[in-house]
Amino acid sequence: MNRNPFIAGSWVRGDNFFGRAELLREVLEGARDALWVVGARRIGKTSLLKELERRVQASPQSAFVPLYWDIQGSGDGRGLAESLVESIEDSEGFRRATDVATEDLEGLSVHEMLTTTVRRTVRSGWRLLLLVEEAEELLVLGRHDPALVARLRRVLQKGPDVRTVLTSTRRLARLDELVDFATSPFLHGFTPPLYLTPLRPDEARALLARGRFAEADVQEIVARTAGHPFLVQLIASRLFEGRDLAAVLEQVASDDMVANFFSVDHDTLEPAERRMLEASARLGAATRAQLSDATGLADEAAASVLYGLEMMGYLAVESSRYRVGNWFFERWLRRVGAERAAAAAGGA
Amino acid sequence: MPAARRRGPVWAVLALLLLALPAHAVREWYDYYLEATDRHMPAGRWQPALAALQQAVRLKPASALREQTYGLEFIDYLPYYQMAVCQLRLGNPKEALELLRAEEDRGAIRKSDRFRDLQSLRREAEALQGQRLATRAREEALRLVKEADELAKDGKLDAALARLALAQGAANTLQDGQLLQGIADRGARIRAEQKQQTETAERAQRLEQLLAEGRSLLEQGRGTEAKIRFDQAADLDPRSAAALEGQRQANERILANQTHEALVQRLVEGRSLFEAGQYEEALRPLTEAAADRSLPEAQRLVDQAQKMLDGLRRQRELQQHLDELTAQGRRLMEQRKFPEAQVLFERALALDPGNVVLRDLASTALDRIGRTILERFMPNRPPLLEILEPGPAETEVEAPSISVVGVAIDERGLAEIDFALDGHVVRTVPARPAGPGEVAGKATFSEEFRLREGPNEITITARDTSGLERSQTYRVTRRLRFFERPAFLPLALAGAVGLLGVGWGVQAARRRRAVRKRFNPYIAGAPVMDEAMFFGRQKLLARLLNMLHHNSLMITGERRIGKTTFMYHLRRALELDEATEYQYFPVSIDLQGVAEPAFFHALMADIVDALALSPETLAGLRFRTDSDRYDGRDFSHDLQRVIDELKTRTGRQVKLALLIDEADVLNEYSERTNQRLRSIFMKTFSEHLVAVMSGVGVRRVWKSEGSPWYNFFDEVELQALAREEAEALVRQPVEGVFRYDNDAVEAILRESQLKPYVIQKFCVHSINRMIEEGRTTVSLEDVEAVRELVRREGREPEAELRPAVPA
Description:
The complex is a heterodimer. By secondary structure, chain A is α/β, with parallel strands linked by helices. Chain A has helices at residues 21-29, 45-58, 77-90, 92-98, 102-105, 110-123, 137-144, 146-156, 175-178, 201-208, 215-225, 229-242, 245-253, 256-267, 271-283, 288-295, 299-311, 327-347; strands at residues 34-38, 64-70, 127-133, 162-168, 194-195, 315-318, 321-324. Chain A contains 18 helices and 7 strands. In chain A, β6 and β7 (321-324) form a beta hairpin. Chain A is globular and about 60 Å long. Chain A starts with 20 loop residues before the first helix and ends with a helix. Chain B contains 27 helices and 17 strands. A 5-stranded mixed beta sheet of chain B has the order 4-10-9-6-7, with no helix packed on it. A 5-stranded parallel beta sheet of chain B has the order 12-13-14-11-15, with helices on both faces. In chain B, α6 (114-153) packs antiparallel against α7 (157-174) and α7 packs across α14. The relative contact order of chain B is 0.06. The interface between A and B is large, with 43 and 37 residues.
């Protein structure tokens, strides 16, 4: 039986991982030891970390030993410590390489745990590649215990013994504003962030080649999704089942799950960014000046917002004109805008 | 009196009423049975369910299929099976096994699809029992170690070693490396102590003996022999005053009787004998010469000769000791005193570590100890026999042959499998010979049997290496196909002429029979387990099978749209999915009524229940049935170990598929628990994990900073049936028996809005009404007449429609 080769939702690595060559190189071979990868929801942040972990584990030449650390839901120092122990418990490769046993860490504070882990890793002849997933949790931790986050920063930026990769949405940028750090801001050293962009057309095509679709269909999918990996996989998966692209596009565009995904993603953005996207959806292809006018943002502020949105793949630029990156998101933005306008009119 | 006479009839009426009251209160067997299967068991109330089932059995001891209950409701009455489910859930595997045997002996279940469930439940009960016995064996081993410690403390070292040998046997059986190491360490300590004690005692005894002999020889005037004994005594204990004094006196005695020249001559003689290797003979002249201190060479040669002779003596004694220990050990083996024998063999081995014979004997003794313990705690059971084809144990076929496909498993080693047709063994398949260090524990088979007309009895017997066997018998009745019957040709012509009439007649007879038996195959309410009644979801099922290897799914749909039924058939399909490189291990989990703190415990409980994990894996889990202190981290820890075991069961890629019904419960849980659930799917081992959740809908309100769990799930909505699927659901179940008028079908499709549950409701009641009126065709009038009833039932609480059997 010819099984559906597309994966919509779950993280991928190995043969199922496509693109991101520069970003992988930057993390593994670049000079920076503190990296922050920013990306929209479902853009592939987890897959990037899993692929990094896999590549380092598979490479006999690498000086790193990877540790994947999912910190979501930690809540406080204790929870964070537990999540670290759990990560070590889950990674047999890490334990084997470094001789770190979870029993040695139980009872320590998370800061001590990390220090011990780094020390043992170095003693075993390795450098630690710490892959921190869902770094937005630092917002929660920082609100409750700014000192903890500050102590954490000291270990996470202890390069070259440890190279830290944080992944999150743009929301983490609020950390330095929300939390009053007595010393340096947390993200200082992690900035400027690396942006996880949608797949390039050639990368999206390589992924779509698995479905053996007609060239016209491939072209259409790449254009409509603007290379957003989740949308590419979702549409390809459904097209693989049904082979009728028009029906699939319509189905995906009106799918509640997809709408919810856009809604949650939209909520992670700053108000100015949201305004910019809504204006862009309303105006279609528009210049920076037009968007600046429509949003009431000063030209310089508009330029900064537009750069961030372009890097995260929300906006695409063609001949100095900006438009919403993918057709589905644009449709959703228009619908939401229309509903809001109708509600406002009803209220008036 | 007249007043009393007037009251007489009133009393009589009252008395009659009182007598009649219990008649109203009397409960039927099916009241108890359904109370257990529909109310108590789905809610996990096993004890009340058991009590109700016992009441049902008291009223109706015999199991039966399609037994009539209320009105036209029919059920499969399998009370012993249901009691076995309860007993197993209550943690009583022994009772469960007895009840399963009782159900199987009664036969009815062998004709039903439940027979597979029975076999699966039996495996589960046997696994649990094995686990219990393993726990007991461990406790016994620990008790023996403790006893050994106490005996060793009291200086009873032999008895202590015998206890340790027993404990070692138990630990070997359990393959508990840690325990084994502890026992080995203790044994080594005790043996070292014992060796030291023995050597000290032997040395003291020999010293005493030599001194006594020396003194006696001195008294007899035999100075030289006495000197030899005292020299040997001084060798054993250089500080022994008695030996030194003896040497002095013996020397004096020798010097008193010999001249210097004579002693020089004795030295020459002694040297010559020494150089010829005649140490025993050389000792006497050399000892005499050594009495003269001016001949130091003589003393040196004496020392050397003594040393050589001592070595020879020791060797002789050692061999003698070894022979004694071996003979004694063998005697103990004959008396089946294996631990005591093992102690002796081990002691002998300590004296002669390279002795291959002794090593074999010690190993045999240990093996026998292990077997004895195994028999005591884990009695050998007949092999497991799992027959995949044919399904029910009694069946009718038209095909000229039938395949018997299955697998036999025996943990101690499988010897062979016999296939018998009507009592005659037609083939014996020996089990694959075991490789080094393994037992021939498993054999798959696929045999084709040619069938003769009428009943055929096929018996498959698996036999283990100890001769224990398990058989399974299938009664297959072969009906000849019409063209195979002898009368076919002569009748063909006449048949052709009368075919239409006969066909009509047969159909009419079938309809009359169906009306008489109140045939009504529709199922409204409970999940539809019967493949033949599973309509309209095959495409979706195929789609899901096609994508599940890489994707977790959320199946949503309104209440009663058929989610539970779909999940059931998805599980069946995954169990049978052999087409790709993936091997699915589906586990059904129902979250209804699961409180948030027990969430991960409930998940793992169902996984443990469904997968019949090995005792080694179970021992490594943090999950304990009797303790619900169990969180997401424990679950993650255990899940890895479960997946590790599953990887050993197949050469294909493992996919543990969690089929989670009533997932709406997650909406009520805190985000923290939901986050923990999400984190499971982030782990690297989740490459071997897929989940299919089903529920009315996920509440997509997510306040936390991070990603929600449903990000990982592709959503599939279970909708009403397509028109043609709905029509098939109406017509096909009664095809060839009853008919529907076209406008009746149209009315059902319209009224039901193509929802399968409502369609079945209409069909159940319409068919009932038709039968009541003695007809064989459902009319529009039937459908319209039951419409109100269907609507009313549609408003009944969902709880009444839960699945009947939780297992």
